[in-house]
Specification:
homotetramer; 342 residues; alpha/beta; Rossmann fold; Dihydrodipicolinate Reductase, domain 2; seven-stranded parallel β-sheet; seven-stranded mixed β-sheet; 11 helices; 30% helix; 20% strand
């Protein structure tokens, strides 16, 4: 059985990544692609790397006949996304890749994003899309909110540890290095090759990054009490990949065993042998997460490092994994591409 | 029906690329992986990006039971390859990725590689592995010689044009930019990140690059007279990709029409609209070739640019395409991965 | 004696490079820096790498008191440059880094740049700024037109050879790889790190690049007859550097001797030993040009490769060298920084 | 007055960087260059970017006539360095760039480096080379031990804060991203462009990096009690630069004021305005350090970020700064090159 898929926001990087993944999916067929600013163009004109595929031309999202769509990925910027999704028929299943439905509390949304949410009902309905931890809810959801890519990386490290109570909740520091595609296809000076290559810098230092909203919401819910981690992202001169280094208080053995047990049956999350740490090179282009645990020289302190591809497992791969669950097909479909190395 | 596959030389980049591609192949199963210097290790230890796969550990090639192998990829260095293949049972089908069986004439081999060929009978038997042009021979071959990655790129531009007689055979200049993975996983100073990134240089200038042996052999055979092109490769600061810029004499329209006709039914070769030129970014990680034709401002001169991924279409992807033909499975199997961009 | 310097267009890359070079110049002092869109800001705010310098804040060019300026560098976009320079007092010496005064013929200018020149008198007055070949004229010039960076690279190879008559004037092919800083600090999709890194492509193929206007003008004047070369630039994933590979007809020995003799006394142009070729890595951040000559395997054909830093020798370094001459100071002042490798 | 300089270990990156810097030093003259493995070669053959300089050919260090040398830089690997320096005449001033004389306690040395120190007397004599904090000792020293590049970066953040008592000494976490030139010109698989570019990874996680020996020694001495920080370096895909992100407990204002006061008169250390953070792009190729302070959202926590160029301020620039002091010349001589951006 073939499922009919639409993508709104198909001219950005997460849109292109969805098309790349669905291209080898055995039972999904792309029926409509929308990108209002480039409507009328072929996908190959906007993304020449996809020119070998037979795909519908880009249209506006208003032109899509949703009666023929089983599931719609929405890869629009936040704020636009909530406005568009509010206008889609309530019968169509939706995986949203924006930030609009990640936070359940309208006040939290306003705090982190600055505007009053335009679709609070949908916000209430949406299921948080971190597949491994919301799998059952996602299966029956109509609207799934894709997580932030940094937020996903941090949660793969921290959720099992918070749940198991093996780390000090008040002493969590998360240091990230992010590839540039996470910033999207936007024309900003600091994203130019000449500005970004050959060096690195921190940004959103001191607790201002919006993904902290997700961390606060999820970790506090898990712990049953407020949890506020420290989080500093850095921008690195590479296109794909997030490396998260977590500085934690707890016993390294307990941390390692907790993570190993949590992910023992997860096809996409690999816990490396104790003492080894991952590299973003080794997950590039794939839906895999690699996690490594190392005890610090100071007893009671442990470092956990996780790597994933922000565009894939951190965004479009996660979205596809969720779509598979929502449509009742094999969760791994279209997602077993091996990483592209070197 | 599942085919049993062995890879000898599995610890190099082309070996890893074969594993990556076969990982999603519907009817190939990797039965044995040899890498004599790393025998005993797991693939995940040598290539952590493949750690999610269930694969046999690395062995020496002598340990492989070839009675259970349908086809063996040989990804060894040249010279070693001819020695090893000479010792393999004559019943096993082989796709060799080295330079050892590309040149049909033992004298040519000696000229370009410096040593007397150790297996001249096999050299005679081998079919040149440029799939689109040797498809029928490859289907019935036992031993196929993978082409040089630069040689493949140049031939995609030039073979149809030479055959059609639409360019001047004495005035062919081929200028290449090659990604560094073409040099393999070898420890050389000029391949270090600190030496190679952030700049470029020509190498093997003046007609000394060994892939000229292939060009001379193939183009002269096609033309029925000696053809000696000019060829200058450059080493660029990127891992995957070859961009070939050919400076030719002929009518741009005839060149464009000849190429368009030649590749009209080829699933992996895309001729861009007249006047557009390709980018290696848009074929990275895939088996596709993009070709563009542009007339020069001086009448009678035309520039043709081609892009492919040296590790995939230029090497391991080509090898898999040939293996598909040799084993009678769909030529596209395992090869329709879309390019990984950005 | 200290010379008072102004820079108009100080917020672009060539402006920043001028400041970097002048920072260690023994007798130049920056008296005014203009960047109309960023007037009021400090240089450190716009270019944090210059924050250690004591510099005047950015102003509009209209705010500069030119009665106190000995020489003004103008690093504006073309078209804007001619309009601004036309309004500057005729007493101030000017080195223009734009394309506006490179072509002497108003018709040529219109052909290549599309608009009628707004200051044809100044166009007539301007001296072409390729220092090694216009040194005497530059010394007494009031207005010097900096050359195109690609145009400079090609001319370092070709001018001596054309003048000496040792190559076939109708068979000149120039293939270039250019670093991205040559495109300036402009917000274009193809200049984003995510689009540009990890690959390469040709652009302005077929004879449409504007620097051909300079080649045509200069080579035809030198030869006393029309000379129209073929020229294809490529965009490489590196910030600084141009590598030009010229395919020529002539005797390699004569070519080598001609270049060696031409540059024997030039402090910034180094001809490598016969058979060696240069790398952009080895001129990065400096005012040096490296040139190498290699005979092709086909008699009568020769390849010449040149490397320089587009922002320095190809633009701001050249401009400073010219300013030194115009103000009667040592030509090498401020320009002997060694390349920054690795 | 001109000072006669020798460099032992001139064929590595720190050796090359010393030559680059000394090339524009007004009163230093390179009298001898040793590189035993490449003795007999010209510098231009080993480092083509230095080919424009008039320099002595490489010799073995045993061939140097030290009676004519005022100061010798020793840029050898650790362990070799202590053996060679022990054999040099006691009259020659030495700046050692290896790790051999950084630790004052022979036991500490053995703990971190594994071998018994071969020159414990020299170890005792050596002055630790972090210029801003040992300036007076360095002026009168005969033997100065260059610091580790990571160790330098961390100390620029932490020394003033420890000394002023404004941070919690038991809660210091230092997270670093290091450019690859810090690993030297060594042929290791993980330093190849194909392995390193386009991604990042942590290494020496958990407190095993040798620069911790320096941190422990220096911070404990400063505090008058044991201080053991947490420290995780990451390897980034860029050649030059270290970015250190320190997670500290203390009042952001006090931290900012302490750092601002400490470096108010230091020519090479720039404290950015409160809330701004630095980038390695903006110190590349220079002797400058940029430091930024940001309060965390959680009261009592503060993040300090520092950036420097590991080859320059972290190694050879520091060495030259120390040599200037030791020879009584202006401390800034040869070191005011502006960063090379982009």
């Amino acid at each position: 059985m073939t499922h009919s898929i639409a993508i709104i926001g198909a001219s950005g990087y997460t849109g292109a990544e969805l098309i790349r993944l669905i291209a080898t999916h055995p039972s999904f067929e792309i029926a409509a692609l929308a990108a209002n600013s480039k409507a009328g163009q072929s996908v190959g004109a906007v993304f020449p790397h996809l020119r070998h595929l037979t795909l519908p031309d880009l249209v506006t999202w208003e032109q899509i006949d949703f009666s023929e769509i089983d599931l719609c990925f929405c890869a629009l910027p936040h704020k636009t996304s909530q406005e568009v999704i509010a206008k889609l028929p309530k019968t169509v299943k939706i995986v949203d890749l924006s930030a609009d439905f990640r936070l359940r509390d309208p006040e939290d949304y306003k705090t982190w994003y600055g505007n009053t949410h335009a679709a609070p009902d949908l916000q209430k309905e949406a299921v948080y899309g971190l597949t491994e931890f919301y799998r059952e809810d996602i299966k029956s959801a109509r609207l799934v909110a894709g997580t932030g890519c940094n937020a996903a990386t941090g949660q793969y490290i921290l959720r099992p540890l918070i749940q198991a109570g093996v780390i000090d909740l008040d002493e969590i520091i998360l240091d990230l290095q992010c590839g540039v595609s996470g910033a999207g296809r936007s024309l900003k000076e600091n994203l130019l090759h000449a500005e970004l290559s050959e060096g690195t810098n921190a940004y959103a230092v001191g607790g201002t990054h919006r993904h902290l909203g997700e961390f606060d919401q999820e970790f506090s819910a898990l712990a049953g009490r407020p949890v506020h981690i420290q989080f500093t992202p850095h921008l690195g001169p590479f296109n794909r990949g997030i490396l998260a280094t977590a500085y934690l208080r707890g016993a390294a053995d307990a941390v390692f065993e907790t993570l190993s047990a949590a992910y023992a049956d997860e096809p996409f999350v690999q816990v490396l042998p104790m003492g080894e740490t991952p590299s973003t090179h080794h997950v590039r282009g794939s839906n895999f997460v690699h996690i490594g645990v190392v005890p610090d020289r100071r007893a009671g302190r442990v470092i956990v490092v996780a790597a994933l591809d922000n565009l894939c497992k951190g965004s479009s791969g996660q979205a596809l994994q969720n779509a598979n669950l929502m449509l009742g097909v094999d969760e791994l479909s279209g997602l077993m591409l091996a990483p592209c190395f070197p």
